[in-house]
Amino acid sequence: MREWFWRAAALRAARAHLPRPDELPGRAFEQVRLLRAVARQVSEPADGLTSGGRPRAVLLLLYRDLVYWALIAGRPDLRDAPTLAALWRQTPDDELLRAAGSAENLIAVQRALLDLSGPGSLDATATDTTRVREFAAALLRDLEAPHRHLKRVVAQRWIRMAAIPTAIIAAVLIVRTLVIGPNLAAWAPFRVSSSWPQCEIDETCNVLMVHTSSQDQPWVEFDLGKPKPVRRVDVRNRVDCCESYCIPLVVEVGDDRVHWKQVARQNDIFSKWTARFPPTPARYVRLRVTRPTSLFLEDVKIR
Q: Domains in the chain and their CATH numbers?
C-alpha cells in the first residue's frame, strides 16, 4: 500500500534509466536539447535572418550535430566519441530504421548526413533538411522516453497522495450527510406571504431566497409533499443589511396549513441559525416573524 501511494521503488527504477549528467551519454543528451532549441530559433527566427532565405545548410549542420549527439546519448556503454560515420555503422539497423520510418527514407537520411558535408551541405534541399530534422526528432523522442516515464511516476505519486485527503474529505462529507440527513427543502416547493414588487428590478433579490413586502407577520412555507420527520432547520440571514428584520423568528410545523406547532424560536440577531428540536412529523414547515416587518432570508435547509 505504501509503495502504491509513495512510488519509491518505481521512482528509483525510473531514475536508474536516466543518463548520468557526469558521463558522456548524459552530457550528450544535454547537447541534443541545446541543439534542438538552437535549430528551432534558426528555422523560425523572431526577427528574420540576414540572408533573407531559409538557412538549409546551417540547419542541416545543426541537425547533423543533433543526430550525432543523440546517437551517443543512446549508447550508455560509450566512453569515447567516434565520428558520425562510425556511430552510424555501430548503431543497430532496426533502431535507425525505426527513426527513419522506412528503408527508402533511411537511405536518403544517410546520404544527407554522411555525403552532404562541407561544401556539399550548400546543395541541401528543403526535403533533405526536413528528412534529417524528422529523423533527429524521432531519436530525441526515444531518448526522452525515460524522462517522460519519470514524470508520469512523479505525477502518480502526487495524484495518489492527493487522493488521501480527498477521500478523507469525501468520507467526512458523506458521514456528515448521513448524520444530519438530506436537505428536505432542496426540492420542496415553497410559498411566501407576499413578494416585494421591486424585486424584478432590484439585483439584491437575486441572492435572496425570500424577500417579502413589509407586512404583519411575514412568512415562508415549505411543502415537503408528505409528512416527514423534521428535527433541524438551518437558516442563513441576509448579511448585507437588515439582519434585525427577521427577529423574532419562529419555526412552525404542521400537516394541514391550518394547525401549526412552534418548535423553535430565535430572538437574537443572527447571520446563521440552526434550530434543533425533537423529531417531529410534518408535511409543512413555516418560518414566521411575529411582528410587522419584511422577511429577508438567503437560504433555508430542512433536515
A: 2-159 (no CATH), 190-302 (2.60.120.260)
